[in-house]
Amino acid sequence: MLRISQSAVLVSVRMCRHGNPASLRPSLISISQCGSFRAVSTQGSGWYESVADSAPVHQAEQLLLSVQQLTGLPWWSSIICTTLALRCSITLPLAIYQAHIIAKIEALQKEIAAFAQQLRFEISVRAKEKNWTEQTCRFHFKKNLRRIVSELYVRENCHPFKASVLIWVQLPMWVCVSLALRNLSLGLGNTDVSAGLAAGGALWFPDLTVPDSTWIMPVSLGIINLLITEIFALRQTESSKMQKYATHFIRGISVLMIPIAATVPSSMCVYWLSSSCVGLAHNLLLRSPGVRKLCRIPETRFDSQTPYRDIAAAFIHKYSRAGAHSGK
């Protein structure tokens, strides 16, 4: 028997597509004080439903509602403003911190190379004294070099893992806001909000609760993400195999996001596209010598006084050469 809590609770029974009574699944729909409702599945819910009904996602919903009510802007522009605020207040400082760490790591490469050369000489001397095999020499060289590099990272306070802090913050934030918009668009948080989103679009996407049938935003999203990936790849003149594999993987994800974005509500697509545009702007901003100097980011051998001209030239050189090879 189902107990009724202090808050008003309705029990709804949903029948499956084939009308099989055995597959009926009860769900609880709690009525909030403001009269809105939220459906929470009590059994059979998977990890996706659990994440979509989690506290961080609900907080993201409240943030989106608060910004829209505070500014009074249409929903499409309110989503863009929220995205801009989150990216500039949270991810931009972390991107600057990441640039600091990467610059310190790059500055250490010359010192690491010198230590490696000296260590190689010492290992060769010790190998002659103790008749070490080549495999033993390689083992001691790698072991001691790892220790030296680790000590250098500690000295400069620039462990490479710190450079990944941005992604560990940005990705959960992106997921929470995306699921919050999905809940609001489907009317799972507030039917009035869903109705507002249905009339809160603009131009070719007047209804933010349905996908963008023109594919303009999904394709634009893929192009922006690929552009960010290529700009990052152009900076890595000496890429390792792992870095090349990671770049190809991100390219694949960027392309895969196009059909995915074409199947989600336009509100999510507006957020994804605006977030990627802000990310591209931050990426280019942190290439500026003036901005890097203002943020006290250490100079590296990759820095340029004309970064944007260099990026354009690198793009033209790379793809003109690719076109020449494909034409042969």
UniProtKB/TrEMBL annotation:
The keyword Cytoplasm does not apply. One of its GO terms (cellular component) is membrane. One of its GO terms (molecular function) is membrane insertase activity. It comes from the Eukaryota. It is a multi-pass membrane protein. Belongs to the OXA1/ALB3/YidC family. Its main location: membrane. This is Cytochrome c oxidase assembly factor COX18. The chain crosses the membrane at residues 215-233, 245-264. It is found in: Membrane. One of its GO terms (biological process) is protein insertion into membrane. Residues 75-286 form the Membrane insertase YidC/Oxa/ALB C-terminal domain. Keywords: Membrane, Transmembrane, Transmembrane helix. The gene is cox18.
